[in-house]
Design brief:
With 93 residues, the chain is an all-alpha fold. It has helices at 3-19, 29-37, 39-84. It is 77% helix and 0% strand.
């Protein structure tokens, strides 16, 4: 299986998981109870959940950006080595 197919499969998997929406009930039990029991907290509960999801997305975006930079650098290095070995490219040494 080529690396292009693997990369495409990984990308499609990440997009599929990103598009699936589900309610996240993984917050601190005491925080959720405090928000849901107070009258003003009921309105803030959805904003609380959105804030947690936003804070969760930042590391994924950061590591994805680093991964893209490393991948492109590796690809450029590989292409430069391939061009150096190609006898049909005229040398300008």
């Amino acid at each position: 299986m080529s690396t292009r197919r693997i990369a495409l499969a990984v990308l499609l998997t990440v997009i599929a998981f990103g598009l699936m929406q589900s309610v996240a009930h993984a917050q601190c039990a005491m925080c959720v109870t405090a928000l849901q029991n107070s009258p003003e907290g009921k309105g803030m509960a959805s904003h609380f959940n959105n804030g947690i999801l936003f804070l969760l997305a930042i590391p994924y975006a950061l590591f994805s950006a680093i991964g893209v930079v490393v991948y492109r650098a590796h690809r450029r290095k590989k292409l430069a080595a391939r061009e150096a070995d190609n006898p049909y490219i005229p040398r300008t040494d």
